Amino acid sequence: MKYRRDIDGLRALAVVPVIFFHAGFQFFNGGFIGVDIFFVISGYLITSIIIAELDTGSFSIIKFYERRARRILPALFLVLLTCFPFAWLWLLPSDMNRFSQSLIAVCTFSSNFFFAFKGGYFDPSAELNPLLHTWSLAVEEQFYVFFPVLLLLMWRFGKRTVLIFLGFIFLASLTLAEVYYPRNPIATFYLLPGRSWELMIGSFTAFYLARARASDSATRLHHMASLLGLLLILFAVFFYNASIPFPSLYTLVPTVGAALIILFSRPETLVGRLLGSPVMVGIGLISYSAYLWHQPLFAFTRIIFLDRPSTALMLILTLVSFMLAYLAWKFVETPFRNRQKFERKTIFINSAAFSLIVVVLGVSGITSNGFENRLPYNSRDLVVFGKTVKFAAIHSTDKSCQNLLGLSEIPEEVCVTNSQHPKILFAGDSHAMALYSSIYGKEFNLDSLLISGYSCPLYPNLSYIPAFKNSYGNTCPAIANEVIKAAKQFDSIKEIILVNYRPDTPDSRYAYYQDGKGISEQKAFEIGNDYMIDRLLETGKKVVYFIDVPHLKNDPRLCLQKLPFSFRPATDPGYPRACSISKEENDEARKTYLAEVSAIKKNHPQILIFDPASFFCKERDCNFKDGDRSLYNDTHHVSVLGSIGILDTMKSDALIGL
Q1: What is the pLDDT averaged over residues 171-183?
Q2: CA 280 to CA 6: how far, in whole Å?
Q3: Signed CA dihedral, 206, 208, 209, 210: sign only
Q4: Which helix or strand (DSSP H or E) is residue 587 part of?
């Protein structure tokens, strides 16, 4: 097919926003749509090549996969093998274990499934994963498995039949993305069924251009349509954000924009001149390697620095990404595409060999628990965190609430119980789960029930759009109403403990609505808690409001688990201060929050208030550890040990132990 400079320019328009988005540049909140542009480009290019060869009878499956291997694998293996020694130096065992798993997933082109089970693309922890971005490569490779075979089998029935069938796939995939997204946004985001329609858009442009009359001349339509396409892409880049359902009908904006550019851009059009400029073409040529390099650079930098990297540093790393990309393009990508230098057999043998090497490294990391022997014994997970019970979506389906209590199952709800006659109901978000972890792990004995949801305030009377809508928090009012229902239904429950995260400063990413009108987070806290507590007091049960735990400055693992090759030595006496918080700092950070809680107490004098600071902050500092063991799993979720300590304190204060 004829080379088009503007397609390379379109690649640049895709990769730059993605990199800026991952760098955290605030004006590129919608930069993640660059991946969707890549999907359209891939669909167009792959389909163009296949139908041209099918028309001439020269198409070969082996030849097709040889081209894919030459294009994708050399640079990918370079990045994976370069990442491994840095991961070994800087990743703590639990992170190294996950990194090792991701290595295997990348080599088997199943990383989209792997990351779908690990959490959402927009979760804060996602930016610490060096290989997160490979999910899109897995989607494309899975598409390449079935698509050429599908075209080969259906070609005999004519292009019209092929297009009708592809149209069916397009509509089914788009419908699935739109309808299934509210039920499982993570799977819809990562997996091929919800993404196929984007590649189909590229395929349709290929079919159209293959039959259109060849012409480089630009009409008014070409000028206007290609400019509209560019504006659609720029609109999505600058005005979309993580709260937009993706993929969904919203995704049509950047993907249709990309299709319009492919269809109507010509060298004479404004868009064609812009995308065909030397700078844009140059970036486009190295866009694949730039995409591969940027995320490991960003992730490792965020891992090794306790403080969030500055904008200046992230900009420097962005430039380094493009420098590495140029070197990889010149000395790895380009030579391996040359059939004179590397024949087909060499490509396949080397691909298999390097895949095996990476998989062996991954298996070694998993079986050694993230090469845990790198750490001194007193810094290992079992010593620092003890028996860790991590709540995940799977725990909402352990059926204990349904089997023992007959409760209904709500999407995204985490509901567990250890008794047919629970005496205490814990309700809230992931902080309630963390507090309950010692009970769930059978480290603390208490007949009880947990009803909770990730990122869920218990405001049954308010509508709510969570910050991490692509992952969780979409059914919070229903979960809150389930708490009220359980409190009314079970006479054995004598006490309800409300536990929720409260940020030190208002978080504008969350949106609350009362009767369709937006309200502030502070107002939502007041109205939502008043309503919830009123409903619970009506049941005649004791209600305890659990003030949020002190928030640490940094992840305790970074202070308690020091690798020999970290930038700051474990012997540095000031290092624990990077995680801990003083009692004075804690009081200052919570001043507004405590005033809000006091207002709740004033409106509801019957409720009891428990402040876990009485457990953590006994002297000048708020403890985040007990000897070598951590009281926290991260900056604001308590560990099993922390849970035991808090529950013991509540028992001593006669707040539990019925």
Answers
A1: 90
A2: 8
A3: positive
A4: helix 583-589
| pLDDT at 469 exceeding the cut of 60 | no
- Average pLDDT value for the chain: 89
The CB-side HSE value for 247 (13 A sphere, CA atoms) comes to 27
Q: Is 90 exceeded by the pLDDT of residue 336?
A: yes
DSSP 329: I
Strand partners of residue 450: 416, 426
CA dihedral 189, 194, 199, 204 (to 10 degrees): -140
Q: What are phi and psi of 60, to 5 degrees?
A: -135, 130
Please state, in angstroms and rounded to a whole number, the distance separating the CA atoms of residues 548 and 347.
57
pLDDT reading at 505 higher than 90: no
SS3 content of the chain, % helix, strand, coil (to 5): 60, 5, 30
Q: Which residues contact 153 (CB under 8 A, 6 or more apart)?
A: none
Q: How many CA atoms lie within 13 A of 54 on its CB side?
A: 22
395: left (phi over 0), alpha (psi -120 to 50) or beta: alpha
Dist. CA 365–CA 105, nearest whole Å: 13
Number of other CB atoms surrounding residue 354 within 10 Å: 18
Phi/psi at 222 (nearest 5 deg)? Answer: -60, -45
Chain centre distance of CA 442: 31
Fill in the DSSP letter of residue 638.
Answer: B
Residue carrying structure tokens 């490509």? 347
b/e per residue, 452-469, with b = 16+ CB within 10 A?
Answer: bbbbbbbbbbbbbebbbb
354-406 pLDDT per residue, tens = 999 999 999 999 999 899 888 777 767 767 777 666 554 445 557 888 889 99
d(CA 205, CA 275): 18
Q: Is the Cβ–Cβ distance between 198 and 247 less than 8 Å?
A: yes
Q: Are 120 and 189 in contact (CB under 8 A)?
A: yes
**Nearest-angstrom CA–CA distance, 637 and 617:** 16
Are 11 and 223 spatial neighbours (Cβ–Cβ below 8 Å)? no
Query: Percentage of the chain surpassing pLDDT 70?
Result: 92
- Give the list of residues 6+ apart from residue 396 with CB closer than 8 angstroms, or none: 409, 412, 413, 414, 415, 416
Packing angle of the helix pair 159-180, 135-154 (nearest 10 deg) = 150
Contacts of 452 (CB under 8 A, 6+ apart): 413, 414, 415, 426, 427, 428, 429, 430, 432, 433, 436, 479
pTM: 0.80
Please name every residue paired with 581 in a beta bridge, in sequence order, or none if there are none.
622
d(CA 271, CA 499): 54
Parallel/antiparallel/unpaired status of strands 463-465 and 511-514: antiparallel
Q: Are strands 517-519 and 511-514 parallel, antiparallel or unpaired?
A: antiparallel
Token readout for 65 is 């996969």
CA distance 63 to 366: 35
Paired tokens of 194: 């919800």
Instruction: Write the DSSP string, 311-327.
Output: HHHHHHHHHHHHHHHHH
Q: Which residues pair with 513 in a beta bridge?
A: 463, 518
Confidence of residue 574 (pLDDT cuts 50, 70, 90): very low
Which residues, at least 6 apart from 537, have a Cβ–Cβ distance to it below 8 Å?
Answer: 543, 604, 606, 607
563 has pLDDT over 70: no
What's the rounded Cα separation, in Å, for the pair 597 and 498?
12
